[in-house]
Amino acid sequence: MKEFMMVFIGEDYEDLGLSPEQLQERMGKWFVWGEKMKNQGIIKSGEALHAAAKTISGPDRIVTDGPYTESKEMIGGYYVVSAESFDEVVKIAQDFPDYDLGSSVEIREVMKFEE
After folding, report:
1. In angstroms, what CA-CA distances link 9 with 14, 99, 106?
2. Bridge-partner residues for 114, per DSSP?
3. Please, are residues 4 and 81 in contact by the beta-carbon 8 Å criterion?
4. Does the structure show a pLDDT above 70 at 62?
């Protein structure tokens, strides 16, 4: 089995103006999806991420707020999953709860190094 990271990209829920009821419903969908993957033994780890970010770059290690201050899109979280192939992870990602909000899932294979 290989490991893949599914990176969730979209607008912050606060910026979308979701009501408390809509937010609760949205979180319910996330919990159902996560539980489904746990029960199937697919999910290895994952977390939601706060919107605030810092980027450190260059030889002078300049610190700036956020990676893309001009963009509303952000990385909202990630899951690391076990799967045989990209195609299998694409199938797993079909249940991602935020497609209807214009969000997306980026899939990357985790690189393993020999020790």
Report:
1. 15, 10, 7
2. none
3. yes
4. yes
Of 26, 49, 34, nearest to 93 by C-alpha is 34
Output the pTM of the full model: 0.86
Mean pLDDT of 14-22: 89
2-6, 45-49, 67-71, 72-76: range with lowest mean pLDDT: 67-71
**Is the four-CA dihedral 49, 91, 45, 40 of positive or negative sign?**
positive
Mean pLDDT, residues 85-99 taken together = 96
- Cβ count within 10 A of residue 1: 11
CA gyration radius, the chain: 16
Alpha carbon distance 85, 19 (integer Å): 38
Q: Which domains does the chain have, with CATH numbers?
A: 2-109 (3.30.70.1060)
CA distance 28 to 6: 19
Q: Where is pLDDT greater, at 95 or 67?
A: 95
Please give the biggest Cα pair distance in the chain: 49
